[in-house]
Design goal:
The protein contains 9 helices and 13 strands. The chain is an alpha/beta fold and 333 residues long. The protein has 2 domains: 166 residues, Thiolase/Chalcone synthase (Peroxisomal Thiolase, Chain A, domain 1), CATH 3.40.47.10; 144 residues, Thiolase/Chalcone synthase (Peroxisomal Thiolase, Chain A, domain 1, 3-Layer(aba) Sandwich), CATH 3.40.47. It has a 5-stranded mixed beta sheet with strand order 1-7-6-4-5, with helices on both faces. Strands 8-13-12-11 form a 4-stranded mixed beta sheet, with helices on both faces. The chain has a two-stranded antiparallel ribbon with strand order 2-3. Helix 4 links the parallel strand 4 and strand 5. Helix 3 crosses helix 4 and helix 6 packs across helix 7. The structure holds oxa(dethia)-CoA. The site of oxa(dethia)-CoA has 20 residues, from helix 2 and helix 6.
Length: 333
């Protein structure tokens, strides 16, 4: 492994739990409708993990498929992007590594919520560039349906469960699949726009059950997401020396189809460059970008050679972007 090697995407995997909950089913228990959810978010249905199935279980499924896709045997680092670990402590990545037959391998959670996958890609690329690792399994897995208050119509319709993964290997910056540059940011003073009040070190136990669920100021988050994803996309394109017309596919975090459309419009990207699978998945947080990539490759709309812009936004607040030329990689079975 040479120092300052580039991280090259060489495997892809996706996993969605089998149970599908559509908007009609949600409207049986919530004051909402299929019409409202579709019009405001673009979501028709989402996958929901069965009780007892968890972030680790889904991460293992997606990770196994990514390893099969890459034909990779020697992984020396597992990064798990999640903000819904199976326990508040420890992180879940070691359990994922062990279940994948990688016991003994370095394993670490990355918690940047819906930006987690882009942050974990950057972390993996950094580990490879520093010579700390030569093959990194990067998984995004989240079980957000366990974090939303089942009585809250402001959050329940938006979120779904799932996991997606990629394998990064040390390679050269001019190879297809070479990741980067990156553009990453955070703004902690706005954390309360989207957070869980209780269960952490500051407020471990609360008498109010709603403190354990996600509280979201949706409209403010929407506005920040549109502005920050566009800003960060422009910044990463400038770093890469690309113009907007160089971008064949824009794979943004799937939070709301209106956010993706607004960002594309601000950037001047054509509608058919926008990759979206949110109609069938909802917002799967750290899993959303690899799930969208896998869906696009399977559907034939993302092919080797395409120049891809990734951009994400999430709680924290956090946001970030990256670019790559899509390699000849298809999702593993
Ligand atoms: O990954 C990052 C995480 N989160 C996000 O990115 C979320 C970003 N925000 C959003 O996607 C949108 O703000 C939402 C989809 C959450 C909400 O859409 P909106 O267009 O901002 O709607 P709103 O909250 O302004 O509500 C509009 C109306 C309100 O009624 P009135 O006051 O106009 O009478 C709400 O009470 O829609 C009502 N409403 C609903 N109606 C039916 C809010 N939620 C629902 C619902 N069903 N589920």
């Amino acid at each position: 492994m040479s120092p300052h090697a580039a991280a090259v995407l060489s495997g892809l995997g996706a996993w969605l739990p089998p149970r599908v909950v559509d908007n009609f089913e949600l409207s049986e228990t919530l004051d909402t409708s299929d019409e409202w959810i579709r019009a405001r978010t673009g979501i028709a249905e989402r996958h929901v993990a069965e009780p007892g199935k968890s972030t680790v279980d889904m991460a293992v499924e997606a990770g196994r498929r990514a390893l099969a896709s890459a034909g990779a045997a020697d992984v020396d680092f597992v990064l798990l992007a999640t903000s819904t670990p199976d326990q508040p402590c420890p992180g879940s990545a070691p359990q994922v590594a062990t279940a994948l037959g990688l016991n003994g391998t370095a394993a670490l959670d990355v918690n940047a919520v819906c930006s987690g996958f882009v942050y974990a890609l950057a972390t993996g690329a950094g580990l490879i560039a520093a010579g700390v690792a030569s093959t990194v399994l990067v998984i995004g897995s989240d079980t957000f349906t366990t974090l939303v208050d089942p009585t809250d119509r402001g959050t329940v319709p938006i979120f779904g469960d799932g996991a997606g993964a990629v394998v990064l290997r040390a390679g050269h910056a001019d190879e297809p699949g070479a990741l980067g540059p990156f553009d990453l940011h955070s703004e902690g003073e706005l954390a309360e726009l989207l957070w869980v009040e209780a269960g952490g070190a500051k407020h471990r136990v609360s008498a109010d059950k709603s403190d354990y669920f996600l509280a979201m100021q949706g409209t403010a988050v929407f506005r920040h997401a549109c502005a920050r994803m566009a800003e960060s996309s422009r910044a990463v394109l400038a770093k890469a020396g690309w113009t907007v017309s160089d971008v064949d596919r824009f794979v943004g975090h799937q939070a709301n189809v209106r956010i993706l459309q607004a960002v594309a419009k601000t950037l001047g990207l054509p509608v058919d460059a926008v990759v979206s699978n949110i109609e069938k998945t909802g917002n799967t947080s750290a899993a959303s970008i690899p799930l969208a990539l896998a869906d696009a490759v399977t559907g034939g709309s993302l092919v080797a050679g395409h120049r891809v812009l990734l951009s994400a936004f999430g709680a924290g607040l956090t946001w970030g972007s990256a670019v790559l030329r899509w390699p000849d990689v298809t999702p593993g079975a």
